[in-house]
Write a structure and sequence with these properties.
With 122 residues, this protein is mainly alpha-helical. The protein is built from 4 helices and 2 strands. Helix 1 runs antiparallel to helix 2 and helix 2 crosses helix 3.
Length: 122
């Protein structure tokens, strides 16, 4: 489905330390191909377009390019990104992010009654 040759050829022509401009070029190539395939399939392919989408970090400016370069680094390509770590940060565990939610039913003020009505169809 995706054109791996486009970003790979571009990446081979770039320096070993990629700048933000280099990542922007890779992002454009990936975005163009993703857009064409999205139109063919009539679906948004964000997150399921290519193998590197599984490790996408949407907190970075060029997420597709960064995920692609990280995949290539894991495959053994000797390349680095300026100001971006080679590996995505670990997502927080579900236990760390949980907050205790307690639901409290409203209590009537002293001396007042709560009236509950049930509607019935005729």
């Amino acid at each position: 489905m995706w054109n791996e040759k486009g970003p790979l050829e571009l990446l081979k022509e770039m320096p070993n330390v990629l700048t933000a401009e280099n990542l922007a070029q890779i992002q454009r190539v990936i975005d163009n191909d993703k857009f064409i395939n999205s139109q063919k399939l009539r679906a948004d392919l964000c997150g399921k377009y290519a193998p590197f989408c599984a490790n996408c970090d949407k907190t970075v400016i060029k997420p597709c390019a960064v995920a692609y370069v990280r995949m290539k680094i894991k495959e053994g390509m000797e390349v680095q990104m300026e100001n971006i770590p080679d590996e995505a940060p670990e997502p927080p565990s579900e236990i760390e992010g949980l907050e205790e939610v307690v639901e409290v039913e409203p209590q009537p003020e002293p001396g007042k009654k709560i009236r509950i009505a049930i509607a019935r169809r005729k």
